[in-house]
């Protein structure tokens, strides 16, 4: 069985055809998915409830993305309180995320991103729920904050990993998992595949990040959880193991981290 460790099924992109999307995932032997929710977004929360009815094995993560950190400019710690309340009211919540830093788009001031991120790392530590991390062009600050605020007690995953060996080793040393999405299937992603080969099989996860970043041969189309099979194929080839073994190992990793 396969697992999609990061998808946005609560996104409006799936509002019109959610049921067939879930049916295709099940038909592709995707047993479970982690659905990412923007904290405080009631439309997404409502669609996540629809997902849960259609796919009871699905679980959710709730967080304030760095792009949205600016909404908490008057009270950065308030972001963690919004997440805390929603997790408390959501029985299927199993993680704090997607949270982190994004210095590529800079849709929120960097100092504010860091404050909001710190607050959510501390919340993860308090709730003993793993973190789902987004980092882009912010490797040093991401690793530093995880080390400073995690206290060796926080676990989680760097999702949709696109970094190099230095970042991979740093987060592995912190005890984190690393997840790869459809980018690992792209023809020009040789360096990323080389980094994926460095990740131990017991710390590896697979995801789609759907509706974004569809893998080959669906590149350019809307992504969906069924397509995680192509990511599994690519990572199995990288590690020189069978597709069945890669699927089994990454599924076990998912259940160990998120305890669904």
Based on the structure, what is the oligomeric state of the protein chains? single chain
Low confidence ranges: none
Which CATH C-level class is it?
Alpha Beta
Query: What is the typical, i.e. mean, pLDDT?
Result: 97
Number of helices: 9
Category by helix and strand content: alpha/beta
Beta-strand percentage range = 15-25%
> How would you describe the shape?
globular
Radius of gyration: 17 Å
The helicity comes to 40-55%
Q: What's the β-strand tally?
A: 8
Spatially, the strands of the biggest sheet line up as 1-2-3-4-5-6-7-8
How many structural domains? 1
Give helix and strand order, one letter per element, not per position: EHEHEHEHEHEHEHEHH
Relevant CATH superfamily: Metal-dependent hydrolases
Q: How does the major sheet shape up? A: 8 strands, parallel
The CATH topology turns out to be TIM Barrel
Layout of helices and strands, plus pairs?
Blueprint: E1 2-7, H1 18-27, E2 30-38, H2 42-54, E3 59-63, H3 77-88, E4 93-102, H4 110-127, E5 131-136, H5 139-150, E6 156-158, H6 165-173, E7 177-180, H7 190-198, E8 204-206, H8 228-239, H9 243-258
Helix pairs in contact: 3-4, 4-5, 8-9
Write up what this structure looks like.
The protein has 260 residues and is an alpha/beta fold. It has one domain (2-258): TIM Barrel (Alpha-Beta Barrel), CATH 3.20.20.140. Helix content is 43%, strand content 18%. The protein has nine helices and eight strands. The protein has helices spanning 18-27, 42-54, 77-88, 110-127, 139-150, 165-173, 190-198, 228-239, 243-258, and strands spanning 2-7, 30-38, 59-63, 93-102, 131-136, 156-158, 177-180, 204-206. Strands 1-2-3-4-5-6-7-8 form an eight-stranded parallel beta sheet. Strand 1 (2-7), helix 1 (18-27) and strand 2 (30-38) form a beta-alpha-beta unit. The two termini are 15 Å apart. 49% of the residues are buried. The mean pLDDT is 97.
């Amino acid at each position: 069985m396969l697992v999609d460790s990061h998808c946005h099924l609560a996104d409006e992109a799936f509002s019109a055809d959610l049921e067939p999307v879930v049916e295709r995932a099940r038909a592709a032997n995707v047993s479970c998915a982690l659905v990412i929710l923007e904290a405080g977004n009631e439309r997404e929360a409502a669609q996540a409830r629809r997902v849960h009815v259609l796919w009871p094995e699905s679980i959710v993560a709730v967080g304030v993305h760095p792009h949205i950190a600016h909404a908490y400019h008057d009270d950065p710690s308030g972001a963690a309180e919004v997440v805390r309340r929603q997790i408390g009211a959501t029985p299927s919540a199993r993680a704090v995320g997607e949270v982190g830093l994004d210095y590529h788009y800079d849709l929120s001031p960097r100092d504010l991103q860091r404050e909001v991120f710190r607050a959510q790392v501390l919340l993860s530590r308090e709730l003993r729920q793993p973190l789902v991390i987004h980092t882009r062009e912010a490797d040093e600050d991401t690793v530093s904050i995880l080390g400073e605020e995690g206290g060796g007690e926080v676990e989680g995953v760097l999702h949709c990993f696109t970094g190099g060996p230095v970042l991979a080793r740093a987060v592995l040393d912190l005890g984190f998992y690393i997840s790869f999405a459809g980018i690992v299937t792209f023809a020009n992603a040789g360096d990323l595949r080389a980094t994926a080969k460095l990740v131990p099989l017991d710390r590896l996860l697979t995801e789609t990040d759907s509706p974004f970043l569809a893998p080959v041969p669906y590149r350019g189309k809307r992504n969906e959880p069924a397509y995680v099979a192509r990511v599994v194929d690519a990572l199995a080839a990288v590690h020189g193991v069978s597709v069945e073994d890669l699927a089994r190992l990454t599924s076990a990793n998912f259940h160990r981290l998120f305890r669904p």
